[in-house]
C-alpha cells in the first residue's frame, strides 16, 4: 500500500504545474467531503422533519430553509467534479464530424471560454455575497449570503478545472480510495 501523498504525486515537468495539480486535488478532496456532509445533513434534516410532522404532529421551523441550503451547497460543490471528468452538458452533433485535431483545438478553446465565464461568475458572485451579507434568513440568524458563497466556490473550482483542461493537464485522483476489494 502506498502512502496517501504518493498516490497524489503529480508527474509534471514543472514545479508550478505539480503544485497546481496538488492544490486542485486538495480542493477536489475537500469539496468531495463537503458534498458528503451537505447531503448527509440534508437527508437527516428532511427525515427529522418528516418524523416530526407526521409522528409528533409538530414541525422544525428552519427545516425547509436549511435543507434547501444543504441542497444548494451539495449541487454547486458537485458541478466542478462533473466538469473535471467531462460529464457536463454539451451538444457535439456538428463537432464529431470534424477531424480529431480540430476537435481537440475546439475543446481547448471552449475550455478557455468556460474558464473565462467562470472567472466572470466568480467576480459577480463576490458582489452578490457582499450585497446579501446583511440579509438574514427568515428562520435562522445566519446570513442569506451562504447561498451565494456556494456559487462563488463553484465558479472558482470550475475555473481551475477548465484551465487544467485547456492546458491539457491530467487531473490527479481526488476521490477517497475504495477500502474494500483487492489490495493495490
TrEMBL record:
<keyword id="KW-0813">Transport</keyword>
<dbReference type="GO" id="GO:0022857">
    <property type="term" value="F:transmembrane transporter activity"/>
</dbReference>
<feature type="transmembrane region" description="Helical">
    <location>
        <begin position="142"/>
        <end position="164"/>
    </location>
</feature>
<dbReference type="GO" id="GO:0005886">
    <property type="term" value="C:plasma membrane"/>
</dbReference>
<keyword id="KW-0472">Membrane</keyword>
<dbReference type="InterPro" id="IPR055348">
    <property type="entry name" value="DctQ"/>
</dbReference>
<comment type="subunit">
    <text>The complex comprises the extracytoplasmic solute receptor protein and the two transmembrane proteins.</text>
</comment>
<comment type="similarity">
    <text>Belongs to the TRAP transporter small permease family.</text>
</comment>
<keyword id="KW-0812">Transmembrane</keyword>
<protein>
    <recommendedName>
        <fullName>TRAP transporter small permease protein</fullName>
    </recommendedName>
</protein>
<dbReference type="Pfam" id="PF04290">
    <property type="entry name" value="DctQ"/>
</dbReference>
<dbReference type="GO" id="GO:0015740">
    <property type="term" value="P:C4-dicarboxylate transport"/>
</dbReference>
<feature type="transmembrane region" description="Helical">
    <location>
        <begin position="32"/>
        <end position="56"/>
    </location>
</feature>
<feature type="transmembrane region" description="Helical">
    <location>
        <begin position="109"/>
        <end position="130"/>
    </location>
</feature>
<feature type="transmembrane region" description="Helical">
    <location>
        <begin position="68"/>
        <end position="89"/>
    </location>
</feature>
<dbReference type="InterPro" id="IPR007387">
    <property type="entry name" value="TRAP_DctQ"/>
</dbReference>
<keyword id="KW-1133">Transmembrane helix</keyword>
<keyword id="KW-0997">Cell inner membrane</keyword>
<keyword id="KW-1003">Cell membrane</keyword>
<comment type="function">
    <text>Part of the tripartite ATP-independent periplasmic (TRAP) transport system.</text>
</comment>
<feature type="domain" description="Tripartite ATP-independent periplasmic transporters DctQ component">
    <location>
        <begin position="42"/>
        <end position="167"/>
    </location>
</feature>
Amino acid at each position: 500500500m502506498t502512502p496517501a501523498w504518493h498516490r497524489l504525486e503529480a508527474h509534471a515537468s514543472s514545479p508550478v504545474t505539480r503544485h497546481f495539480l496538488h492544490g486542485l486535488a486538495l480542493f477536489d478532496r475537500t469539496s468531495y467531503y463537503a458534498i458528503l456532509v451537505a447531503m448527509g445533513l440534508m437527508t437527516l434534516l428532511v427525515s427529522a422533519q418528516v418524523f416530526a410532522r407526521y409522528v409528533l404532529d409538530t414541525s422544525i421551523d428552519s427545516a425547509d430553509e436549511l435543507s434547501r441550503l444543504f441542497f444548494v451547497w451539495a449541487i454547486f460543490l458537485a458541478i466542478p467534479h462533473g466538469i473535471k471528468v467531462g460529464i457536463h452538458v454539451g451538444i457535439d452533433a456538428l463537432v464529431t464530424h470534424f477531424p480529431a485535431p480540430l476537435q481537440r483545438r475546439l475543446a481547448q478553446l471552449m475550455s478557455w471560454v468556460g474558464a473565462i465565464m467562470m472567472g466572470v461568475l466568480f467576480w459577480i458572485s463576490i458582489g452578490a455575497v457582499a450585497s446579501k451579507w446583511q440579509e438574514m434568513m427568515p428562520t435562522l440568524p445566519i446570513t442569506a449570503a451562504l447561498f451565494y458563497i456556494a456559487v462563488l466556490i463553484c465558479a472558482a473550482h470550475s475555473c481551475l478545472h477548465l484551465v487544467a483542461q485547456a492546458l491539457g493537464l491530467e487531473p490527479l485522483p481526488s476521490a477517497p480510495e475504495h477500502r474494500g476489494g483487492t489490495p493495490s
